[in-house]
Write a structure and sequence with these properties.
- It is an enzyme of class 2 (transferase).
- Strand 15 (254-261) and strand 16 form a beta hairpin.
- This protein is 26% helix and 30% strand.
- The strands form 2 sheets. Strands 8, 9, 10, 11, 12, 13, 14, 15 and 16 form a 9-stranded mixed sheet that branches.
- It has 301 residues and is an alpha+beta fold.
- Helix 2 (51-64) packs across helix 3 (73-87).
- The protein binds pyridoxal-5'-phosphate (PLP).
- Residues 34, 187, 190-192, 211, 213-216, 250-252 line the site of pyridoxal-5'-phosphate.
Length: 301
């Protein structure tokens, strides 16, 4: 039986429900996180990846949206570890914390409304193929920070993702890449992006309307540890057509190599060596097989 932590107790997931009049449901006034836990079969251990960093971002998102999750980062970490421990998972898991404006009021405001916090976890494997995907540049633009804060993980802002990814799927692509209103590359539909040009990993800056991704930080650290240069700078759309390698990164997608974009091959149209190298290091690290990166992980059992 899947469990949730909701209203300060552990309950069956199907009992963690809200009214249709809930403010967050009507107006998208919530913040959430997506966190992965990886099961290491050989060690018989479940590790949560970057748990503290996710809750720290959650608190920052909530602060932008004037939502009070009602718990400290340490308390939410403890509740999440306990949620997983109680379910005794022996597989990879996706964890979803959520805080939202909970009162049943018809009034568009962030003030004077009481907030709720919930967290639940479900088994999850790969979200996107990891052997090479075909993406399109979306006709939809990534939301502007001055319209809906792009560095906050706000529930309502995922309308932007849903529009882009649905168009991409209906047109036969695996995913979409957003440009900013100024025409520079922002990110994937729910993932950050790196391209490789002449041996340098390049990714857009946090001021290009991206979510400040935790996997993005991991990739930059892995690259530096491997002696690969990293550049944070604006990227033009057509640079993606002529780059050597391209990949999406995020908690959900993990690392997803892009081998075709807008009906053009990326490099030779196969997964490139830099992507392959970073990917294999990432896979080992998140499962607790790289001693120097064990401090990224929270052990559940
Ligand atoms: C819009 C968006 N960008 C980027 C990311 C990647 O962020 P992270 O690596 O922190 O999961 C996500 C979430 O996975 C996202 O929803």
């Amino acid at each position: 039986m899947p469990l949730a932590y909701f209203k300060n107790e552990f309950v069956p997931l199907d009992q963690a429900t809200v009214s249709v009049a809930t403010h967050g449901l009507n107006y998208g006034t919530g913040c959430f996180e997506g966190i992965r836990a990886y099961y290491n079969e050989a060690q018989g251990k479940l590790y949560i990846l970057k748990l503290r960093e996710h809750y720290e971002r959650f608190v920052r998102s909530c602060s932008i949206m004037r939502i009070d999750p009602g718990h400290s980062v340490d308390e939410m970490i403890t509740q999440t570890v306990e949620l997983l421990r109680r379910q005794n998972f022996h597989q990879d898991v996706y964890i979803r914390p959520l805080a939202f404006k909970a009162d049943p009021v018809i009034k568009v405001t962030l003030e004077g409304i009481h907030d709720e916090f919930a967290v639940f976890a479900v088994p999850m494997g790969d979200y996107l193929p990891t052997n090479g995907i075909h993406v399109m540049i979306s006709a939809w633009r990534r939301l502007e920070d001055n319209a809906i804060p792009s560095r906050a993980k706000v529930t309502g802002s995922y309308v932007n993702t849903a529009l882009a990814v649905t168009d991409a799927h209906l047109a036969g692509f695996d995913d979409a890449i957003f440009l900013t209103e100024s025409g520079h590359v922002a990110e994937g539909s729910a993932a950050n992006l790196f391209m490789v040009r002449d041996g340098t990993l390049v990714t857009p800056a946090v001021s290009d309307n991206i979510l400040e991704g935790i996997t993005r930080n991991i990739i930059m650290l892995l690259a530096r540890d491997q002696g690969l240069p990293v550049s944070v700078r604006p990227i033009d759309r057509t640079e993606l057509y002529v780059c050597d390698e391209l990949f999406l990164v995020g908690t959900g997608v993990q690392i997803s190599p892009v081998t075709r974009i807008d009906h053009r091959n990326v490099g030779p149209g196969t997964v490139g060596p830099v992507t392959e190298h970073i990917h294999s290091r990432y896979r080992q690290a998140v499962r607790g097989d790289v001693p120097e990166y064990l401090d990224w992980l929270t052990l559940v059992n």
